[in-house]
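Suppose a colleague, Dr. K., hands you the sequence of a protein chain of 305 amino acids and asks what its three-dimensional shape might be. Before reaching for any lab equipment, you can write down a predicted structure in C-alpha cell form. Begin with the sequence itself:
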Amino acid sequence: MASYRKGALRPSLGDRIFDICNVLFMLFLVTVTLYPMLNQLALSFNDANDSIRGGIHLWPREFTLKNYEYVFQQSTIFHATLISILRTVIGTALTVFCSAMVAYTISKPEYVLRKFVTIAFVLTLYFNGGLIPTFLLIKDLNLLNSFWVYIFPGLIGVFNLIVIRSFIQGLPDGILESAKMDGAGEFTTFVRIVLPLTVPALATISLFAAVYQWNSWFDVFLFNSSNINLSTLQYELVKILQNSNSAVTSRTAADAFANASTDNFVSPLAVRATMTIVASLPIMMVYPFLQKYFVKGMTVGGVKG
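The predicted structure, expressed as C-alpha cells, is then:
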C-alpha cells in the first residue's frame, strides 16, 4: 500500500507533458497580451525620426522624451485632463448609484412591473434612436455645451443593471426581511444593507463605467466641440493626432526625410504611441485595486438572468 501511494504521488509522463505544454501556452499568451502595450511604450520613448525606419519592438532604439513634451506642451491638455477626471469620477459614481437603485427595484418580487421594466431596458440594447434623433433630443434638453451631457445620457447602463440585479437576487432573503422587521424603509435598506453587500458587483460596474467615461471622446465632438472649456483629454489627443497627420501629409516624403534632423518633427506613429500610453496609464493604475472584485462580480452576476 505504501509503494502504491508513493507511486501515485509521482507525476506520470502524460502529466509532465501537459504541464510543459501548459507553461508554454501561458508564456505565449502573456507575450501576445503584453507585446502590443510594450511596443507602444517603446515607440513613445523612441525618437520620432528614427521610428519612421521601423524595427522598434520592445526597447527604444534612440531614447527621447520629446514625444511626451510634444503632447504635454499643448495649452489645453491639463485643463482637458481635469475635465476628464471630473467626468470619470462624477459619471462613475452617479452611474453606479443610479444603476444599483434601479436594479434593486426590479429585483423585488413584489414589484408588479419589474418584468415589463426589465424588458423595456433590454430592448434598448437592440434598438436606439440613431445619431440625429439623439442629437436633437440632447438639444431639446438644453444639454448642448454642458458638462452634464457627459453624465445624463449614460446614467443607467442596461448591462450594469442586469449584473447588479442578478447579484442582488443572489443575496439571502433573510437579510432583507430582517431589515424590514427592524423598521428600515426601502431606501435605508438599499443604502445600509444592499450596497455594502454588493461591493463586488459595484466594483465591476465601476471599472466598466470609468473606462467608458475616460475613453469617450465622440460625445465631446458632437455636443461640446465649440466649447474648449469642456474638452476632454481624449478629444484633445485626437486633435493632436489629426494635427500631426496634417503636418506630415502637407510635406512631401523627400522633405520629411530631408528635414528628419529637425527637433520639432514628431511622426503620427510616435504621437499615436504616446497617446496610447497617456490615455491608458490612469486605468492601468486603477485596475489592480479592483481586480479582486472584478472576477467575483462577473461570476456571481452571471449566475442568474
